[in-house]
Amino acid sequence: MYPTDLKYTKDHEWIQIGGGEARVGITDYAQKQLGDVVYLELPQVGRSLKKGEVFGTIESVKAVSELYSPVDGEVTAVNAALVQNPETVNKDPHGSWMIAMKVNGGDGDLIDSAAYTDLTK
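RESULT FIELD:
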């Protein structure tokens, strides 16, 4: 159910890392818990983030939740199309990246799809 080319956090974000760059979004589990997403607030390009730091918020008809950076890094891009159409997260959570980052450091406590599937049972 969860793509094997992604890594996951216990806070329900996914990250795809390649060549020192990464894209970050929320998991299918997270979007199902939230319900219909209506608003997304993301950081400015150039912002430095520490692993576990809040980088934005996502609002649904049910709740407002914080988004957490899975790694240390610098924001290199923000998905403006997703900000304009946040409901896309509900249709394609693993294809809807929120921020791109230049990664500064390891990904030691990220988990694979099998471990994330076990976490969300």
